[in-house]
Amino acid sequence: MPATVFQDLDELLAAGRRDLGATDWVELTQSVLADFSAATWSPGGDDDNVAPPMLLVSLTNRFLPDLLEVRGASSGINYGTGKVRFDVPARAGDQIRASAVLTEAGEVAGGVQTTVEIRIEVQGSNQPACTVESLSRWLR
Question: Using CA atoms, how far apart are residues 11 and 140, in angstroms rounded to an integer?
Answer without folding.
Answer: 13
